[in-house]
Amino acid sequence: MNKSDFFPTRPELNPTIYAYELPGVPDHKGLLKIGFTTRAAQNRVAEQTRTSGIQTKIVFEESAMRSDGSDFTDHEIHRYLRRKGVKNKNGEWFECSVAEVKAAVIAVKNGVENEEN
Question: Could you tell me the pTM of the whole model?
Fold first, then answer.
């Protein structure tokens, strides 16, 4: 009997937090869509926007894995940003900078507030 008969191969997952913008869409100027995927961020963003024909630009992509092996989702990043007073427009769209997203990911990943940002 083969070892894999007892222990099925674990699927290859890569928990990722990403953010993208919609250049050329005036009502989304200054907004970032912050999301989570276990696949390539580029593929996930394409799924969300492919039929609209809107150009996207991924501006942030980071592992959603903590050092203890647990993961976190975009919901935790969204909550963190709201607590920091970042305006949340229309679901997962936030009026913030890439630096603010990065600070939120670091804070959630490490379980500490990032005082610099």
Answer: 0.83
Q: How many CB atoms lie within 10 A of CB 59?
A: 14
Non-local CB neighbours of 93 within 8 Å, separated by 6+ positions: 28, 31, 32, 33
pLDDT in tens, 98-107: 999 999 999 9
pLDDT digits (tens, 9 = 90+) for 66-86: 989 899 999 999 999 999 999
User: What is the length of the chain?
Assistant: 117
d(CA 64, CA 117): 19
Give the residue ranges of DSSP H helices in 1-117: 3-6, 41-49, 74-83, 98-110
Helix or strand run (H / E) with residue 19? strand 16-21
Angle (CA) 89 80 88, round 5°? 5
* Distance (Å, whole) CA 77 – CA 101: 8
